[in-house]
């Protein structure tokens, strides 16, 4: 997982940061990094950690509880190793390459990509070891807000169904935002969210996933988030029966604690508690304990503006020597 938090394709133009892809538009590599393969599909999209909110932009549904996810999720999902490099060529063109060994050292996955901005138009092509992804996006000012549309086509070698196409469409004008993913070809689900930011400290959102083939909703989710600069809490009610929540609390300038709980009606409760400390301006050490008795630590450091590293290790508390172990490292570079 990139320790630059998925901002690899953010470019500077006219003294303004261009927006990165929202979580729903990530490539399969990004989505794979959201969770380990052993994690349930129910959690997959919820554990996505979005890029920081850009100036003059609104947050997304996935920014609800983002600080707790940064503390308790980011870095712990690294496979055995990960490397990525972004190269800016001028103001409007970027090249990106990545490789990762996940879940095992020899299970290699990777690819290269390019993105170019032509005015309000963006062109993206990603070549991966198991498929291709191409995207064409357009962003325009509309009625005092920003409208965006992106056509995304993907082909996976192991999927015999062929090319899949979906249309992403959204609009935002403070304090309102919505985003939809519309299936065009061989994509079975219609999904999207509506978000309100009525006050600076609060986020309120509704998200839904509709299965077109089965003609029914897979998910309804209502989310509420709060952050006042030192305290963050979030609640998400899914399908009117499953409750998910998190708390993040800063303790001064260097320390913070966090907790995350998932209460599923059909499954046992899942929880994680953890803490983080900022040793220097560029070094953070994190630790967490999970409901299944697994303990992990993450060391992350920004060496300079162009290089960031992250190391992770974890083990089962009940049997630290013979039980499960995890080790991972990640390097992210910009040129």
TrEMBL record:
Protein origin, superkingdom: Eukaryota
Comp. bias intervals (Basic and acidic residues): 28-44
GO molecular function: porin activity; voltage-gated monoatomic anion channel activity
GO CC, one annotated term: pore complex
Region feature Disordered, mapped onto this chain: 17-44
Matches recorded under InterPro entries: Porin_dom_sf, Porin_Euk, Porin_Euk/Tom40
Keywords: Ion transport, Membrane, Mitochondrion, Mitochondrion outer membrane, Porin, Transmembrane, Transmembrane beta strand, Transport
Subcellular compartments: Mitochondrion outer membrane
Family statement: Belongs to the eukaryotic mitochondrial porin family.
Protein name: Voltage-dependent anion-selective channel protein 3
Gene name of this polypeptide: Dmoj\GI17809
